[in-house]
Amino acid sequence: MSSNSSQPTVIIVRKHAAAHDDEHGGAWKVAYADFVTAMMALFIVLWLLSASEKVQKAVGGYFQDPTGKGRQTGSTNAGSGETLTLNRQDLEHLKEKVEAALKQIPALKNVENQIRMTITSEGLRIDMLETDRGLFFATGAPKPTEAGTDLLHILGTELTKLPNKVAIEGHTDSTPYGRSDYSNWELSADRANSARRILEEAGLPENRISQVRGFADQRLLMKNDPTNPSNRRISIIVRNQGLDQQEETPQPQASSSLGTPASNDPAAKENPSQGTSPQGTSPQTTAPSAAPGVAPSKEAPSKQPDPQAKK
Fold first, then answer.
1. Any alpha helices (H) in 160-215, and if so which ranges?
2. Cα–Cα distance between 235 and 170 in angstroms, integer?
3. Does one domain contain both 52 and 125?
4. Inside any domain, residue 8
């Protein structure tokens, strides 16, 4: 009894480590990635706030139309940085307004199938398609009917609310006009000009009309049926903003021209009178260098003094 009490008591402590959940072992990576993304977005916003107005408009144009003209904004010849396309919601809103206005006019209630609105690369195209009886323009007449005048007045009133330029096209079918001094070319152009005058009477400023085109029967809507009345139409195009400015800006010349610079032309070095002039004469007006083994051509006889003329 005493021997057992003299021995020290051994206490064994067993610790069980908590099992780790392998599924959540990388949760910190997700949180860190979110943090880095948020910081990147913050620095992008700070950069845009300090960037120039041109850069801000260019970035905004890309996000408004990432697959169209917007991705070229700020880098084209125009360089205006403006959005080059109409907002699709604005186009739909304009379309709804025109349709509602047509329903209010008794003479135009049954012409919904003769008015086609489509969105193209140029902008919103409004086609006024003709019928056999001549709905908007009488057959062979350059002046619109009462229904055509009313519709053009409605369109002119709605177009004044937009800042976009407008182009007007006239089209005919393939039926000959029947006069030697007046053809489908004159008829299509006269109808487009008649539509232009009515749009201006409705309040559309003159400087908003960018183009008036007459195509005759060169752009048929029904190519398989050239004499179909639907080929006779007036098209009003609400053009994308900045499109006219791009067309008016001349395209830059390529770095390589038809002629080689005088400094790189051995023949031009030997004969300084040939080649590009110091004032930057264009290559088209520069005299070509003589080919090896061929004597240079003499001056034209017109530049030689005429002894008989002196006499």
1. 184-201
2. 7
3. no
4. no
